[in-house]
Amino acid sequence: MERRLMECNDGNNLQQSRLAMPESKCDCHLLLAILVFISAIMSVQSSMDRGPASPDSMFCSHFWSTADADHYKLLENGEVAELVLDRVAAAGFASNTRYLFGRISIQMKLHPGDSAGTVTTFYTSSLSGKHDELDFEFLGNEIGKPYVLQTNVYAAGVGDREQRIKLWFDPTADFHNYTIHWNKKIIIFMVDETPIRVYRNNEDLGVPYPCRQPMSVFASLWNGEEWATQSGAIKLNWAKAPFAARYRGYDVQGCEVPWYKGHIAPCISRNSDALLNKATIQDLDVEQLVRLQWVTENMLVYDYCTDVYRYPDPHPECTRNSGLLDLGSEFQAHDSFSYKMDSHTSIW
Predict the structure, then answer these.
(1) Per-residue confidence of the chain (348 residues) as pLDDT tens digits?
(2) Is the dihedral of CA 93, 247, 150, 135 positive or negative?
(3) Contact of 180 with 101, CB cutoff 8 Å
């Protein structure tokens, strides 16, 4: 508790949060996680006052950050966190706890207006060489053009499994819920109540799956202008800084792995099945399948599975992970969902 009080009331000064964040998308989250982790161990000096956040509040209880108070702000008595990006620094925060499987969710509200070149994230990552990682990455855009939401999966250091979608709402107008369901069988990325991607355990096909390394939870806002917007053609406009994103409503139910002498055996054994069956979605029901298919048909703008230029040889897991399914008569019974979603897309 003494450390949490220090972090929430005084803060730690991450000098290399003033570092430019990695500008390549390759392992950028892993580099961020390692930098933050090393800085937290190396530095316990106090810095600027964060304000009146309660040590028992959402973000004081679950997260820590070594960014200064200009770039990591606790609002509403510590129930809302704001990350700020400017010429001086990027920002991020990390969870106090690691998990191996679970449901991990947070609400986010993104920076409005010109956000080109910015990358706003919510993700999990292990601190290892051949790391595991599950990503929500919001790629900023010019005024009048929507954010692109990129998801990615790393397992045993193997990544480059990106999918990108447009959203059917304005993510800058209000908070929306972003959730990762992660268990031994499947990973499901969800936006509010809509699944936008599934990634199944295909180890039987020789495809790595993140199931042996506990992961911490991270969020960040940084300069990704070299690749984030139109493949780097549109750069970040510093005249529009500062850029800010807000987070609230963090919720996690998962199998915890302590930092000190933590073992994964309880999480991979059958003893964890009851917890994971309750906390996570094991497979999609018909309505969720309809929602996923609608997103795939209408919102998907990039899929590594169909990128024959990068990958002339198809990935073996793509057929099993496809959001395009033959739903038959079951689709007709839930077809009203498509009309509802189409009406929302006309707004944004």
Answers:
(1) 333 333 464 433 333 332 333 334 445 565 555 554 544 433 333 333 445 577 788 999 999 999 999 999 999 999 999 999 999 999 999 999 999 999 999 999 999 999 999 999 999 999 888 999 999 999 999 999 999 999 999 999 999 999 999 999 999 999 999 999 999 999 999 999 999 999 999 999 999 999 999 999 999 999 999 999 999 999 999 999 999 999 999 999 999 999 887 899 999 999 999 999 999 999 999 999 999 999 999 999 999 999 999 999 999 999 999 998 766 545 554 555 554 555 555 435
(2) positive
(3) no
Helices (H), the chain: 2-9, 28-42, 58-62, 265-268, 273-279, 286-298, 318-321, 329-333, 336-345
Distance CA 29, CA 220 (A): 9
Q: Which two tokens stand for residue 64?
A: 């820590």
Which residues have C-beta within 8 Å of that of residue 59, sequence separation ≥ 6? 8, 53, 74, 78, 79, 80, 81, 93, 247, 250
Q: Which two tokens stand for residue 210?
A: 């993140």
Residues 6 or more apart whose Cβ sits within 8 Å of residue 306: none
Instruction: Say how far apart CA 305 and CA 199 lie, in whole Å.
Output: 12
Give the dihedral sign, CA 318/320/326/331: negative
pTM (two decimals): 0.85
Q: Answer whether 180's CB lies under 8 Å from 188's CB.
A: yes
The catalytic residue positions are 133, 137
Is 258 exposed, middle or buried, given 0-12, 13-18 or 19+ CB atoms closer than 10 A?
A: exposed
What's the token pair of residue 240? 């529009």
332, two tokens: 């007709």
3-class secondary-structure state, position 270 = helix
